[in-house]
């Protein structure tokens, strides 16, 4: 059964915390004024009735009422200094005010009615004026608590009208009716005002709630934007933000950063799929988190690269060594046991730099040195590496400003057919002489050019000059070009090569494209598609530096290849029994799947003889010739049947090496 609506209305006092607290805060300002008004008006009535009414009504009763009023007024003044109440306290205060308002109104109206018969007409009129003005003032003070205001009005108004009618005077009756009408209007205004107050409070509360929710969502979005979704680690953006913050602090204590790159991750990802690769990265991230203390922050920078920031320098390198050991430890992904390694570059603040950019660049360079020079492990950026960085940056600036058509030249390294000794082809090699830096090694400038767009200009220049040289060479001599990983998947480079071959009038079958296993292993599927596009043009494909990667057999089987170039490390070891067996096995494997073999770095007659006996078709190296300018090579090509091989049975390996060096 539903309760009667007035009961529900009074029961709702303070039930809404969003409304109750503002009501209580407002009443903290209004209630002391209410008691002050009540005391002033009541004291005036008591004074005018001195000598007219009994002592009890002019002194004793007022003393009790005034004491209670003063105590309540002091209570509210103290309450105001304590600030906003809690929702529960606000609810209690509102309900207490409502009850006390009715009781205090009843007490004061009974006292007023008791005074009304005493004194002359003016004194009696003062009682009527006192009741009407006081009740109006009290209602105004209770505007934001309509239940209390209504109880006061309902308590006072009937008694006041009764007093006016009981005198049976037209003036008093008229005054009673007038006051009743005024109170009715005031109550209507009170309800309208409270309705507006409530709407404003609830709107403000809703806006505050929406603002808080928006702030929460913004904070959540910011957190997600700074977190790697796969591993849960802070991401690259957070890494650079923290690095910027640390370097911007004045008087910053030394700290270190590290850039960790996983070794052999790409072959695992290609072999087992991205799902296994993702689980591997998640497991590595968990190991890094478990190994680092509160002083070391771990980030995932992207791919298989992680970042470290450590503010506890003395133990950082030891921690990094332990981290690398943890990275190398076997990982069980389902039923698969995986092993990866790690390379780590470290830079220290302020030795390696005082800006975030310098610190990261130097850590990244130390990582490159650890990975490609040290063969993995950890490398700390030092002054020696600083010299190398400056040299590399000088080369990088020179590459950007270089006119390759004028500064780049080519040399041609002969590739010899071992069965006949004839010149079968040449490998086109780039040489760069800068007017400011002088002659720069290809191993230096190619690696730097691959990190910028300069490699594309170098590739085009080498191809143009190589094809021009092909026009001067005998038609049976093939030209082999090295193609960078940056150009391998470039549709622009493919179109350029096709156009230049057509313009030069060179048969595409004379052109070989050499790609390293390191280049194709980054994305074997995409590399296979790009190489097939070259083969569709009639160009033949060779896999360079075979045997130096991690999954050579897999690439040999899946890539569209015509030839394999056996790395010089196999050739150097061929004089030993085990090395000879390994080299023979590689050559046999290639022949089995229909690929020709070219041995690189042949320097001795014994190596040449063993390679020929193993069935290797071609070879190149200092035993036959250093790389030659076109004019010198043409001079040696006057006799197409010339045998480029030395007298294999007449010289020793040691003598051959000396002759080759000479």
Could you characterize what this model shows?
- The chain is α/β, with parallel strands linked by helices.
- The protein has three domains: 5-209, no CATH class; 236-381, Reverse transcriptase/Diguanylate cyclase domain (Alpha-Beta Plaits, 2-Layer Sandwich); 403-661, TIM Barrel (Alpha-Beta Barrel), CATH 3.20.20.
- Helices cover 60% and strands 14% of the residues.
- It contains 26 helices and 16 strands.
- The strands form three sheets. It has an eight-stranded mixed beta barrel with strand order 8-9-11-12-13-14-15-16. A five-stranded mixed sheet has the order 2-3-1-6-7, with helices on both faces.
- A hairpin with a 2-residue loop joins β2 and β3 (305-310).
Just give the CATH class of the largest domain.
Alpha Beta
Q: What is the oligomer described by this structure?
A: single chain
Strand-residue proportion = 5-15%
Total domain units: 3
CATH fold title of the largest domain: TIM Barrel
Global Rg: 48 Å
Overall SS class: alpha/beta
Count of extended strands: 16
Portion of residues within helices: 55-70%
- Largest beta sheet: what is the strand line-up? 8-9-11-12-13-14-15-16
Mean pLDDT across the residues is: 84
Distance between the termini: 114 Å
Shape: rod-shaped
Number of helices: 26
CATH homologous superfamily heading of the largest domain: EAL domain
List the helices and strands and how they pair.
Blueprint: H1 5-11, H2 17-48, H3 55-81, H4 87-115, H5 121-141, H6 146-166, H7 170-225, H8 236-248, E1 255-263, H9 265-272, H10 274-291, E2 296-302, E3 305-310, H11 316-328, E4 331-333, E5 336-338, E6 341-349, H12 356-372, E7 377-380, H13 383-401, H14 404-407, E8 408-417, E9 423-434, E10 438-440, H15 442-449, H16 454-470, E11 478-482, H17 485-488, H18 491-504, E12 511-516, H19 517-520, H20 524-536, E13 540-546, H21 552-558, E14 563-566, H22 568-572, H23 577-592, E15 596-599, H24 605-614, E16 618-619, H25 630-636, H26 653-661
Parallel strand pairs: 6-7, 9-11, 11-12, 12-13, 13-14, 14-15, 15-16
Antiparallel strand pairs: 1-3, 1-6, 2-3, 4-5, 8-9, 8-16, 9-10
Transmembrane segments: 32-49, 55-77, 97-118, 130-163, 170-191
InterPro entries: Cyclic-di-GMP_PDE-like, EAL_dom, EAL_sf, GGDEF_dom, Nucleotide_cyclase, Rev_trsase/Diguanyl_cyclase
Pfam families: EAL (PF00563), GGDEF (PF00990)
């Amino acid at each position: 059964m539903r309760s009667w609506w007035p009961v529900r209305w009074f029961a709702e006092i303070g039930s809404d915390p969003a409304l109750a607290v503002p009501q209580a805060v407002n009443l903290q300002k209004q209630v002391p004024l209410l008691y002050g008004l009540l005391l002033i008006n009541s004291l005036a009535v008591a004074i005018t009735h001195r000598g007219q009414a009994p002592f009890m009504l002019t002194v004793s009763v007022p003393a009790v009422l005034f004491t209670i009023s003063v105590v309540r007024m002091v209570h509210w003044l103290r309450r105001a200094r304590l600030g906003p109440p809690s929702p529960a306290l606000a609810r209690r205060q509102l309900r207490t005010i409502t009850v006390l308002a009715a009781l205090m109104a009843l007490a004061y109206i009974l006292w007023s009615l008791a005074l009304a018969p005493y004194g002359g007409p003016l004194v009696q009129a003062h009682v009527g004026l006192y009741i009407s003005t006081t009740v109006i003032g009290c209602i105004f003070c209770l505007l934001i608590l309509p239940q209390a205001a209504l109880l006061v009005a309902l308590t006072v108004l009937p008694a006041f009208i009764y007093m006016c009618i009981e005198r049976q005077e037209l003036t008093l009756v008229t005054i009673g009716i007038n006051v009743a009408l005024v109170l009715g209007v005031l109550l209507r205004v009170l309800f309208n005002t409270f309705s507006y107050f409530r709407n404003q409070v609830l709107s403000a509360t809703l806006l505050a709630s929406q603002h808080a929710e928006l702030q929460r969502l913004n904070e959540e979005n910011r957190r997600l934007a700074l977190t790697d979704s796969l591993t849960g680690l802070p991401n690259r953006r957070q890494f650079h933000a923290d690095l910027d913050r640390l370097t911007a602090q004045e008087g910053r204590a030394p700290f270190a950063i590290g850039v960790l790159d996983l070794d052999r991750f790409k072959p695992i990802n290609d072999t087992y799929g991205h799902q296994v690769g993702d689980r591997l990265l998640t497991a590595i991230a968990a190991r890094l988190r478990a190994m680092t203390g509160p002083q070391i922050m771990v980030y995932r920078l992207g791919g298989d690269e992680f970042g470290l920031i450590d503010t506890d320098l003395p133990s950082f390198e030891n921690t990094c060594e332990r981290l690398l050991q943890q990275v190398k430890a076997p990982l069980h992904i389902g039923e698969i046991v995986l092993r990866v390694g790690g390379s780590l570059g470290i830079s220290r603040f302020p030795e390696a730099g005082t800006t975030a950019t310098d610190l990261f660049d130097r850590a990244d360079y130390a990582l490159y040195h650890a990975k490609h020079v040290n063969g993995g492990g950890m490398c700390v950026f030092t002054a020696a590496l600083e010299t190398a960085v400056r040299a590399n940056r000088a080369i990088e600036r020179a590459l950007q400003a270089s006119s390759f058509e004028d500064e780049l030249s080519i040399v041609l390294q002969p590739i010899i057919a071992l069965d006949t000794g004839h010149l079968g082809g040449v490998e086109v090699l780039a040489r760069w002489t800068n007017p400011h830096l002088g002659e720069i090694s290809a191993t230096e400038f190619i690696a730097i050019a691959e990190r910028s767009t300069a490699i594309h200009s170098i590739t085009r220049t080498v191809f143009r000059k190589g094809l021009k040289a092909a026009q001067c060479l005998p038609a049976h001599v093939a030209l082999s070009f090295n193609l960078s990983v940056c150009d391998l998947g470039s549709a622009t480079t493919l179109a350029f090569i096709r156009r230049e071959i057509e313009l030069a009038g060179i048969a595409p079958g004379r052109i070989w494209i050499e790609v390293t296993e390191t280049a194709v292993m980054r994305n074997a599927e995409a590399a296979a598609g790009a190489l097939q596009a070259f083969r569709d043009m009639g160009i033949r494909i060779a896999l360079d530096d075979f045997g130096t990667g991690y999954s050579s057999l897999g690439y040999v089987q899946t890539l569209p290849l015509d030839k394999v170039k056996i790395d010089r490390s196999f050739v150097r070891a061929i004089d030993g029994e085990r090395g000879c067996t390994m080299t023979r096995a590689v050559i046999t494997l290639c022949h089995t799947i229909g690929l020709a073999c070219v041995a690189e770095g042949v320097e001795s007659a014994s190596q040449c003889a063993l390679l020929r006996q193993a069935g290797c078709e071609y070879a190149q190296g200092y035993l036959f010739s250093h790389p030659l300018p076109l004019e010198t090579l043409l001079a040696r090509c006057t006799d197409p049947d010339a045998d480029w091989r030395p007298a294999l049975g007449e010289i020793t390996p040691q003598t051959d090496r000396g002759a080759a060096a000479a």
